[in-house]
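Can't paste images in this forum, so I'm doing it all in text. The chain is below; anyone willing to post the predicted C-alpha cells underneath?
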Amino acid sequence: MHSTFLSRTRRWIGASALAVIIGLSGGASFFVATSQNVAAQAAGTGAVHPAAQITAPNIAAPPSFADLVDAVKPAVVSIVVEAQDANSDTSGFDNQIPDLPDDNPLKNFFDQFRHQQQPQRMHKYMAAGSGFAISPDGYFVTNNHVVKDATKVTVQFSNGDEKTARIIGTDDKTDLAVIKVDGLTDQPFVKLADTPPRVGDWVMAVGNPFGLGGTVTAGIVSALNRDIGGTSDDSYMQIDAAVNSGNSGGPDFNLKGEVVGVNTAIFSPNGGSVGIAFAIPADTVKQITNDLIKSGTVTRGFLGVGIQDVTRDIADSVGLKQAKGAVVTETTKGSPADKAGIKSGDVITAVDGQQIEGARALSRTIGSKAPGTSVDVTVWRDNAEHHFTVTLDTLKPTSNDNSKQNQPSPNDNATPTSVQSQGLTLVPNSGGDGVLIQDINPDSVAASKGFAVGDTILEVDNKPVNSPQAFEQAINSVKSSGRNTALIKAERDGAARFIGLPLSDK
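Text version of the structure:
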C-alpha cells in the first residue's frame, strides 16, 4: 500500500513537472532562465550554454523563540476548573402551566402541580484555561472568567504534575484572578514587565488552547489602549498572535521573557483565531494582583462625577485648543468632587499633572489610586485653568438606577408656547427643568449632532434654560461673545450628556 502510493506519486510528480516545463517554454519566466542559450542560438553559433544558477539574496532570518520558550515554559500552567451554576429545568410541566387569574376555578388545580415541581438544580461543568506563576511560593495569575463559580481548581504543570489550587481573589472589573498552590517553595516564575511594549514589538503567547497545553504562538503588538466595550477602565493591548479558547489567562511575553499582557478576549466571527486578540496590560495586572494577594479584593479611588469625552465641538464651545479631557456631566452629592467644588460643565484636563486624554483615561487614573489619596485635579472653567485638591473616597458597586423623574413626551405639554431655533422646535417642560425638543429639522446641524425629539435641554453655556425664550437668549449670548459653537447639556432617559452645537443663523 505504501509503495503503491509512492509509485503513483512519482508518476504524478513527473507528469506535473513536464506540464510545467511545457507550459512555460514560450513564456517570459522560461526565457529569462535560458537567455544565454537563446542568445547563442540567435548568433548562429550552435553552442548551448548552461543557465546561470540563481543565487538567493542574503536575508536575515527571523528570530527563533526556542530559547525563550525553554526559559519561560515551566512558569506557564494549564488550569482545569470544576464548576456549577444554577440551571432550571425549562422542559418540565411547569413551563406549560398557564398564568391564570385568582378567580379562575382551575387556578388551584394548576398550582398543585406547580408546587410539586423539582426545585432549581445546579448544573455541573468543567472548563479549561491558562495561567502563569508570579512567585516561587505558588501564586498564579489567570482570568476571573476562568475560575468564576469554581468548586475545584486544578493546576497542570509543564512536567505533567497536577495540584489543587485555591482562589485567593478575583476582580470582575478587569477580569483578573489570583490562585495559589500551597506547599510550593521553588516554583519557576516570571516577571511582569515594567515598561509597556510598543506597537510592532514581538510578542509570544503561551497557553492551553482547546486543552492543548504548552502551545506557543507568536506575533506582534497590533495596537494599544483598545476599548472593547467591557468597562470604563478598558485599555487593552491588541496582538495578532494566535489566541483561542483555552488561552484565557495565559501570558504574552516580550523577547526578554517578561509578561507584557494577559490574554482575555478575542474578536472572532467563528470562535477561532482570526489574528485579533486582546490582553490586559502588565501595569494593570501588577496593580490588581498586588491588591488581591494582600486582601483578596481590589479597592479603587472614587471621585464622584459623571463624565464624557471632550469632542471637537465641545472644545470649541468652551475655548479649549485641544479636544482632550473629560467633561463633567454631573457630580454626586456629597462626593469628593462635590466637596472640592467641581461642578457640571467643568472639563478635567489633568490629575496630579498627568494629562487626561478622555473619560476612560480619567476613570483608570482615579481607579488606580488608593482611597484616601489626595490628588490635584486640573479643571478648565470659564476660559481658565483651576486646580482643586480632592481626597478620594472608596469606589463601591452601584446599580444603574435612573432615579430622575421620567420626562413626559412633547404631547403631554399643555403649554402651546414654542420657539424654533437652530433647527429645533422647543416647548416648556411641564414635568421638570429645561425645555423639551418637540420637533427637529432632519437636515439641521442639531440633528447631525445627535439631538432627537423628546430630549430635554437643561443648559446652554453652563447656564440653566427653563423656557424656550431662555434658550434663544442663551444662544444669542454665545454668538455675541464671538463663539461659533454652544455647549448644550441635554438629557435622555435620565442620562445627561454635553454636546457642542455649531451655530447657524439659518
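The CA atoms of residues 226 and 236 lie 5 Å apart. The chain is about 20% helix and 35% strand.
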